[in-house]
Design brief:
Elements (H helix, E strand, L loop, with lengths): L27 H10 L18 H28 L5
Bound molecules: protoporphyrin IX containing FE.
Amino acid sequence: MLARGALPPVNAKPRNFALGAFHGGAKASDLYMRITQGIEGSPMPAVTFVDGQFEEDDVWHLINFIRSLQEASEESSSETEAETPQQT
Ligand code: HEM
């Protein structure tokens, strides 16, 4: 990645996508902008497209992956709620 002009690693607290806290919008188009443009004022770099290696489809795969983490988390939290005995 560095050879392709990516920024060197910076220590930054990673965002927990499973919590679904998308500060810049949770729509697929918002995530697409964030991943392709990077996030100004943060260490998050813009992607570098390389023909045959990293193309537009790959960004959509990343978006699907990020969103799948959130859905998995919602499923497991609702399961936890169902298992929790009712307080009366
Ligand atoms: C495959 C690589 C990556 C993907 C798919 C990805 C995806 C994302 C997305 C979707 C957000 C937006 C979260 C929101 O809307 O709140 C985000 C935020 C962020 N990313 Fe990445 N990211 C990647 C790599 C990186 C790298 C390499 C860094 C830093 C070295 C980084 C640092 C950050 C930071 C600091 C934020 C929070 C920015 C803020 O809200 O101020 N990301 N990332």
